[in-house]
Amino acid sequence: MTGLALSGGGFRATLFHVGALWRFNELGMLQGMNEITSVSGGSIIAAYLGLEWKNLRFGTNGVAGNFNEIIVNPVTSFCARTIDVGTILGGIINPVKHPSELLIKRYRKYLFSDATLQDLPDPNGNPRFTIYATSMQSGASVRFCREFLGEYHLGKIEFPDLKLAVAVAASSAFPPPLCPVCVNLDAKAWQESDISDLHDDDYLKSTMRLVDGGVYDNLGLTHLFHHCDTIFVSDAGAPFSIQRKMILTRYSQIARTKRTLDIMSGQIRALRTSDLVGRYKSGSLKGAYWGIGTNIDDYPLVKNNLPPALTKDSDTTREIAQIRTRLDKFKPKEQGQLINWGYSLTDAALRSHYNSNLPPATNFPMANYPI
Question: I need a surface site. Which of 96, 98, 99, 347 has the fewest CB within 10 A?
Fold first, then answer.
């Protein structure tokens, strides 16, 4: 079984993963995925890919010739909108509406309309798309897919008709301004499992309060570790940065809280990445990992007498790695460079650590914005 994990990181992650998916499609590898998992900004592109999967025209070579038309163009158009500011301010101005409700409304308006989880492809012969959120009540991971909605303390609901926009909003509801997303469910619809120790709690089963999936698993790996022997990870999470000075006035509490959350998230990401790389090195797992902060020059392509990477490390690529993680308007140049960077790193990682016989990338997909 082959899996692909798409991390979070706002629109930056969405666009970076567009580049990764573009390269997978060119290589004829996208159609062969069995599992695609996602968190936060990764869930925007993953859910849209799943929704439009039936409209992709894959040729005999496994390449979808209409990938740009069906996936790239609508997603880049969406990422040219500012979503977060209006959503947060709207919740402040209208206290009856929580910002998460407005976020759902925008996802429905611009991407998902009235689609539900049942509009994702049947995993029998297609990839299974799993969207991650986190329960603020139990602290556990919550998984949304076509076949079930699951939280291990509670059990699962089979074939949920939940709106796709709600699942994506829950997955991308970064704390504190956009969370929680409140999901109301039928308590009687839950099925008990051997480990669902809170299955008798009807309140938890009927009123779920959810936050960004990256709070629990910022790479979306848990499900893949249990089901796949080949795992690819596209990680657009912010590289951890040193902060030499801290504002120490009484007005800096928000900044200090954010810094604390960044440290915690960074450590969790480092542990999960270390575990993943350890499995690669031991031979128990095949695949490749690439991160937005990865040095492309470190890939041993030339050392192994393989065609070089499409680009080199530079001030531009380092700036791309530090670009904001918000859901705000990304200009055409920012979009093009993010897509090209995700595409280039994916190509280098696959040829270095997965299959050296893959044909090398020769041109940037977004030709107007070379890096």
Answer: 96
Is 127:228 a contact under the CB 8 Å cutoff? no
Any idea what the Cα angle at residue 38 is, between residues 197 and 81, rounded to 5°? 125
Give me the phi and psi of 314, to 5 degrees please: -160, 175
Give the pLDDT confidence score for residue 234 in this predicted structure: 98
* Predicted confidence (pLDDT) per residue in 118-133, tens digit: 999 999 999 999 999 9
Residues near 209 by beta carbon (within 8 Å), at least 6 away in sequence: 135, 136, 137, 179, 180, 181, 182, 183
Nearest-angstrom CA–CA distance, 307 and 296:
13
Q: Does position 96 have pLDDT exceeding 80, yes or no?
A: no
At residue 89, does pLDDT exceed 80? no
Mean pLDDT of the chain: 90
Place of tokens 């829950």: 170
Q: Which residues contact 19 (CB under 8 A, 6 or more apart)?
A: 338, 339, 340, 341, 342, 343, 344, 345, 346, 365
- Residue 227 burial (C-beta neighbours within 10 Å; 0-12, 13-18, 19+): middle
Residue 228 near residue 34 (C-beta atoms within 8 A): yes
* Structure-token pair, residue 91: 């919740």
User: Which residues face 58 on adjacent strands?
Assistant: 64
Q: Is the pTM of this model over 0.70?
A: yes
Identity of the residue numbered 123? P
What pLDDT sits at residue 71? 98
How much is the average pLDDT of 133-162?
A: 96
Residues 6+ apart with CB under 8 A from 83: 103, 106, 327, 328
Cα 257 to the center of its chain, rounded Å:
24
Taking a C-beta distance cutoff of 8 angstroms, is the pair 171, 132 a contact?
Answer: yes
The two three-digit tokens of residue 43, written as one number = 């869930």
What does DSSP assign to residue 251?
Answer: G
